[in-house]
Design a protein that fits this description.
Elements (H helix, E strand, L loop, with lengths): L1 E2 L2 E2 H23 L5 H33 L6 H32 L6 H33 L2
Antiparallel strand pairs: 1-2
Helix pairs in contact: 1-2, 1-4, 2-3, 3-4
Length: about 150
């Protein structure tokens, strides 16, 4: 799919690269007890936007690969494959992170172990997501820009 002759993938990737780290940072802020009430809904919204943008980036990347890079071999093919592998991990990671963010918000009023465990899992998933978005983006940049 293209918009004005530009493949959708590089356009939607920018949303994923902006909103996914913002969602992860919101998860870190959610761990601060005095900020929890104020950050709950921004976390949910950012996690949802991140989830949608990552999935759209994933599917548009699949289309881009089959439309323009299907017959590529050699070093470029290896770089694209590396990017695809990181993208698969990111897609799963962001899905888990978003689910945890939603569940944390749903059980926001709980106290004790449930709240603590959900908060810790959400923060850990946010940190993992930050790492995965970096590795995926770096692999994509290496595939496109490394000469």
């Amino acid at each position: 799919m293209e918009i004005n002759g530009v493949p959708l993938h590089p356009l939607v990737v920018h949303a994923a690269v902006v909103f996914t780290p913002l969602a992860a940072l919101a998860a870190l802020a959610y761990a601060v007890p005095s900020w929890r009430d104020r950050v709950r809904w921004p976390l949910v919204v950012l996690a949802l936007v991140s989830l949608v943008s990552i999935w759209v980036a994933y599917f548009s990347g699949e289309d881009l690969q089959s439309d323009r890079f299907g017959g590529v071999t050699g070093t470029l093919a290896e770089r694209i494959e590396d990017h695809e592998e990181w993208a698969e991990k990111l897609r799963i990671g962001v899905t888990v992170f978003a689910l945890l963010a939603f569940v944390s918000a749903w059980f926001h009023t709980r106290t004790g172990a449930v709240r603590t465990v959900l908060t810790v899992l959400t923060v850990l998933a946010g940190l993992a997501t930050l790492f995965l978005v970096y590795k995926t983006g770096d692999a994509g940049a290496q595939a496109v820009w490394k000469v």
